[in-house]
Amino acid sequence: MSRTAIVDGFRSPFCKEGTFLKNIPPELLGAMMVSEMLQRMRNWGIDPKKIDLVIGSNVGTPPDAINIARVAAVKGGLPESVPADTVGKNCGSGIAAVHYGNVLIKANDRKIVLVVATESMSRLPIMYAESIRNDLIAFSRAKTKKKQVKIAVSIYPKLLRLQNKKYAPQSGLLLGLTDQLCGLIMGLTAEKLAKDPSLGITRKDQDRFAMWSHQKVLNAQKRGILAEEILPLYVPRKTYSLVDSDNGVQKNLSLETFARTKPFFDRRFGTVTAANSSQITDGAACALLMNSETARDLGLPVLGYVVDYCDVGYDPSRMGLSPVAAIANILHKTGRTMKDMSVIEINEAFAVQTLACLKVLSSNTLMSKFFSAYNLGNAPGEIQEKQLNPNGGAIALGHPVGVSGLRLIITALKELERKGDEQALVSACIGGGQGNAMILERGQK
After folding, report:
1. What predicted TM-score, i.e. pTM, was given to this entire model?
2. How far apart are CA 116 and CA 107, in angstroms?
3. Which residue stretches of 14-162 are H helix?
4. Engineered SS bond to 379: which of 76, 179, 331, 367, CB 3.0-4.6 Å?
5. Tens of pLDDT, residues 149-178
6. Is the distance from CB of 276 to CB of 425 less than 8 angstroms?
7. Structural domain boundaries of the chain?
8. pLDDT number for residue 18
9. 4-124+278-439 domain in CATH 3.30.1240.10?
């Protein structure tokens, strides 16, 4: 039976908000990924016009690039005849985008699908207060100088009082990270897990896990492992500069360094800090999916195969636990066990969130406490240290929201290829109370 092959995949360096990628719009970041994949296809002797569909993954969509996959595809060199759709499933968008491509390919509706993920968290907008916004709109519509002057005079005092809550601008990033369903910013959903006595996760546990993530990334960088999945980019600064590595990882860290970082979301009683949370980051990624028979006929090496996918809905205020249900469901659905997975990539939104998932996944008591209504049965089992995020995760690499899911897939498949092992599982919690997971298999060269 035909399967969905992931022929190739790569990503940009992940750069902290406000650093090397800050001046590149997300549609252009995506176009860079598309352009590189099209060139690789030409090198393989494949006409890029054979691409049937582009599926994008993005969350902070700029207002001048709606359906950002379409903009990135055409700017990246694809002909206008190739259609494009964009997925916006928060942190799970990249995994979902690959899933939708897989569904279309398995249904024989498409043969070749390009997935492109892009996010510029540096460029998320600042929103003016409604009264100022209305004045600005009125100013733009004023037909006389006298009217414009009158409106400008009314706006000026408000601009001088931007610290007043009534007139203060709002951060698009802050708004995007706050869940309308439960009224909590993502960090407070993490604090809810940290304060749950049944989970028993301390500040030191979180800091130790975060330091471990940095240590693994540093080790992977030294060994050249991450370079295998990164497409270096020339980016405009004072002159064009080459950016070829992730810049969020910290060297010479100690638990004392983490301990000095103050709680960010609950400043009096909290334990979740900027240091034990994922970083706000810019980045992009790309993957080429095709029918396995098409890949064979074209003589292409295959990085990996999509086995199956699962997503779930869960309590938005505890959204960090949602990977537990997604992982339990997909293991049951495919008849696999945790021990079958050589690599398990769980997106590190917060250290406490990942630690909480690990605890619930290995405890029947906690599984019953948090998921009794889901009929998931016993806990799937313990995840070993060597399985989990072997080259680090989002705490050290960063978390460009619409890109992270695709990064997990590329990273997992590259690790399977290096180790010669067969199966990997990737999963992410999703703001709004969702989670998704995908099982992958190693490809053939």
Report:
1. 0.95
2. 21
3. 26-43, 68-75, 93-106, 130-141, 145-159
4. 367
5. 998 888 888 888 888 888 888 888 888 999
6. no
7. 4-124+278-439, 129-168
8. 95
9. no
